[in-house]
Amino acid sequence: MDTSSPAVFVNAELLKMYMGRRVRAVIQVSRNEGGLMIGQSTDGQQLTVKGGAPQTFPVSHYVEVIGIADGNQSIRAEMCTDFGERFGTCILTLVAFSLILSLYVIFLVASLFEVAQVFISKKT
């Protein structure tokens, strides 16, 4: 794994903040047109991918793209990886579980803090 030039994960909205820099995105392929791959980003917006042999990826497949952000909604691909048609169902479940667990921990810490404040105020 090349760690000399890490690629930040982006969606279409974040892409514009990383113009000219190496980025990584996952899109669902909508269509292939003349050497371009057009797809939907994880935030529901459209992204265009140039290069990286996009014509080989079937419509509706999820594709990870690593390349250079060269426009508000485009990436010049260095490498593309096909994840197939059902990418992320397990990952989304894990993310949702992690989010729920994090919220629970925050609630628990807040509750403990509140109890500690009540205990301290009764002592004084």
From TrEMBL:
Entry keywords, A to Z: Membrane, Nucleus, Transmembrane, Transmembrane helix
Membrane-crossing segments per the record: 91-113
GO biological process annotation, one example: DNA replication
Biological classification of the source: Eukaryota, Viridiplantae, Streptophyta, Embryophyta, Tracheophyta
Family statement drawn from the similarity comment of this UniProt entry: Belongs to the replication factor A protein 3 family.
SUPFAM superfamilies registered for this protein in UniProt: Nucleic acid-binding proteins (SSF50249)
Keyword Phosphoprotein recorded: no
Protein name: Replication protein A 14 kDa subunit B
